[in-house]
Structure prediction request, 207 residues.
Amino acid sequence: MYMINKTADLSQMNEGRIALTTWGGEYKPDARFYIGWQDDRLIVYLRAYETNPVADVTERNGNVCRDSCLEFFFSPSADCSNGYFNFEMNCNPTLLLHYGLTANQKDRVIVDYPLDAFRLTCAHDTDACSCGGGVYWQTRFEVPFALLEKYIPGVTLKSGDIIRANLYKCGSTRQVSHYLTWAPFDTVKVPRPNFHVPEMFGRMQLA
Prediction:
């Protein structure tokens, strides 16, 4: 289980790897994540070691999953009973964000919330993104707990709580299609790429 430390300092966050090639494929970029929390928000860093990430989509809530994309899907509950949010980003950075009650696409709505509230940034040039002998692009964003309460009235998050989440690295335009995950998928139940399956989310705990 991934532990979310109570910190806004990247160096104090645990590193996770988005490394499972759940639906096969030869292209497997090194992808990682780091998550912290404060009393009023989550802080999320997503990183992919790629030298030429695709970033064609520029409109908010555009189809960024076809670009070189990093994604954070999570439910602020231990059983996903209160729905889930899917944050999907390319390196422009452009954000796609939905809230869904179930895996059914008809149950998903576009999140209406000020973009500035997420403090979304991206570093993707060679000088800003060199680390450990490789070049990467990285997004940073925040998830205000006020956003959660807007869609799930009465929801709270505190130390010791369990949430459910999965993280993804994907892309299918002008590069080899790839679908990497953090938590494993049952490919009998989900034989084709589909990230919108809350029952396949892993467990995380707020430290």
Observations:
- The first strand starts at residue 2 and ends at 4.
